[in-house]
Amino acid sequence: MPTFAVGDRLLRQTVLAGGGWTAGLAAVALLGAAAELLLPAALGRAVDAALDGGSAWWAVSACALVVVLICVDTLTDLASGFGAARATAALRRRLLRHLFAVDVRATRRHPVGDLVGRLVGQAADAGQAGNAVVLAVVAVLPPLGSVVALAIMEPVLGLTLLAGLGLLAVLMRAFVADASAATAGYQRVLGTIAGRLLESLTGARTIAAAGTTRREEDRVLAALPELDRHGRRTWGLLARASARTSAVAPLLNLSVIAVGGYALTAGWLTPGELVAAVRYAAMGAGLGAVLATLNHLVRSRAGAHRVAELLTQPATPAGDRPLPPGGGALRLRGVCVHADDGRPILDGVDLDVPAGATVAVVGASGAGKSTLAAVAGRLYDPDRGEVQLDGVPLRDLDTVALRRAVGYAFDRPVLIGATVHDAIGLALPIDSAAPPTDRSPATPAVLRAARTAAVADVIERLPGGYRTPLVDTPLSGGETQRLGLARAFAAERLLILDDATSSLDTATEHRITEAVLGRAGGRTRLVVTHRTAAAAAADLVAWLDGGRLRGLAPHRQLWADPDYRAVFQPAGGGS
Question: What residue stretches are annotated with the ABC transmembrane type-1 domain (predicted)?
Fold first, then answer.
């Protein structure tokens, strides 16, 4: 389905997501519109009653309608606030859940800052859709009701107001069409700037060391003129539309008053009805006030389309099969992965990793090592081919079972959680990750993982030990990498290390290599590396060359090939 259609459907869903609050807003707004329409008639009757010495009942009725309008304003603010908050929260949960469910390659196509902007800013704009739709519809009722009321009092008055409203409607229709494109462009460029800003903040130390601060400022703000152009266009359109309606509205009001004055002198209207006609004319001419509501609706629609662009990305389908008993045998058959431009990254890879074995994955930069590691644990699916764990295709596996069975450690791990303990226990089942009491420093599983990763001594020196908040934990690159390794050691069957020891000193790397390559735990290990020692210590080496598996054999056997030896030279190393 085209993104445009998905965006409009999402807008309708967001309107309904406000639930009872949006329905309540509609009811209150309709009550307010009815009171607003009745008030001029009540005032007119009150004037006639006062002139004729009649009852004060109409005056009391007019006062009561004013009280109703005051209450409506209060309830409208309450219902619109709660309804928008509910709809926005539901949309953000849906978008965030979808972002975690899609192929990681799909999210990498968007800068993180842009994704955050859509989740925070555009989702909030779309969340206002219920309010915008309700208030836009209700805002039209008083002008249309004024036409009907004037037509009942005197048909000529109704026709006069209707002609002016038709002209105002044409002016506002042009505003909606032009403002939609300008608002969408503004939000798109704003996302681009946010993405570049986040990149710069992440690499702030590198920028400072290179002395390229001014150049980076220019890069981040390069799109600012385009943003300014879209912003000026939006406000220019709004200003022109307001000016046009402001020019037409007084003329329309004067036309109704003039016709009403003639009708009074001709005896067609009473003085009270003339007062009511003047009020209805002002109400009808106030259709220009609908512009603000239409502007909100345009922003909501543009925000919904921006969110829908992400929701159209297909989610990775989840399986429901459990893992059978086994030791982590990994099999790849005909695995192909292509870049966005169609270039093959992996090309027909067949690989068998016996249960409990350690296979080092080596190759020159760009050979496809990290991509092989990604598809081996289903960070994303291959474009063609199949990956199996203990005989079950990864596509068919239950997601929880897969994540408990497979653990990942990366060269630049991102630590997630409130405390150090949470970061290590992220992949553990809840009953194993949560400390049983507030006094216990860590669960046994977390302690074992920290010791295996040679990071327990670092954690114990922290002020709060395992309970130290991550934001207050000064960690070097090697210590962060060890915490990432500790998190991965929670895996039950398959441990995948993507150059995960590159920042460690030699002694620590040796300790961890022994722990990883040792037989304890019986897990299968897939180790992406550019270190000769790690390749030599593995049971087998999978040698990738240009996306193809060029060899699968022990290191000492492959070492006889000069092309293989060249992989470990400085010019050919890396992952």
Answer: 23-286
What DSSP assignment string belongs to 448-469?
Answer: HHHHHTT-HHHHHTSTTGGGSB
How many whole angstroms separate alpha carbon 14 and alpha carbon 311?
A: 14
Residue 544 in tokens = 């990738």
Give every CB contact of residue 384 below 8 A, 6+ residues apart in sequence.
334, 335, 336
Residue 470: count of CB within 10 angstroms of its CB:
16
The tokens for 430 are 């809840």
Return the structure tokens found at 409.
Answer: 């450690």
Counting every residue, how long is the chain?
A: 575
Rg of the chain taking only CA atoms, in angstroms: 34
The answer to whether the CB of 157 falls within 8 A of the CB of 260 is: yes
User: What confidence tens digit (pLDDT) does each residue in 390-407 have?
Assistant: 999 999 998 888 888 898
Q: Residue 182: what pLDDT?
A: 80
Look at residue 553 and tell me whether its pLDDT is greater than 90. yes
C-alpha–C-alpha distance, residues 257 and 266, integer Å: 14
**pLDDT: which is higher, 250 or 137:** 137
pLDDT at 172: 67
Cα(496)–Cα(524) distance, integer angstroms: 8
Q: What DSSP assignment string belongs to 302-347?
A: HHHHHHHHHHTSPBPPPB-BPPPS-S--EEEEEEEEE-TTS-EEEE
Token pair belonging to 79: 């219902």
Q: Give the whole-angstrom CA distance, residue 42 versus residue 63.
A: 9
Q: What is the pTM of this model?
A: 0.75
DSSP 3-state assignment of 529? Answer: coil
Give the C-alpha distances (Å, rounded to integers) separating 441 from 271, 425, 457, 460: 85, 13, 13, 9
- Is it the case that residue 542 has pLDDT exceeding 90? yes
Q: Residue 258: which residues within 8 A CB-CB, separation 6 or more?
A: none
CA angle 411, 416, 421 (to 5 degrees): 105
For residues 13 and 126, give the distance between their C-alpha atoms in angstroms, rounded to a whole number: 10
Query: What is the 3-class SS of 142-189, one letter each residue?
Result: HHHHHHHHHHHHCHHHHHHHHHHHHHHHHHHHHHHHHHHHHHHHHHHH
Task: Look at strands 330-338 and 384-389 and give their pairing.
Answer: antiparallel
Which residues are 498's β-sheet partners? 410, 528
Q: How far is CA 381 from the centre of its chain?
A: 22
Chain position carrying tokens 């239950």:
398
CA dist., res. 163 & res. 393, Å (int)? 69
d(CA 363, CA 566): 9
Residue 371 has pLDDT above 90, yes or no: yes
Percent of the chain that is helix, strand, coil (3-state, to 5)? 65, 10, 25
* Helix (H/G/I), strand (E/B), else coil: 570: coil
Mean pLDDT over residues 315-338, rounded? 89
Pairing assessment for the beta strands 540-545 and 548-553 based on DSSP bridges = antiparallel
CB-based contact 413:481 (threshold 8 Å): yes
Contact assessment for residue 403 and residue 433, using Cβ atoms and an 8 Å cutoff: no
Q: Dihedral sign for Cα 390, 394, 396, 402, please.
A: positive
**Distance between the two ends of the chain, CA-based, in angstroms?**
38
Fill in the DSSP letter of residue 118: I
For 115, 269, 283, 284, 407, the CA distances from 141, given in Å and listed in that order, are 39, 24, 10, 9, 60
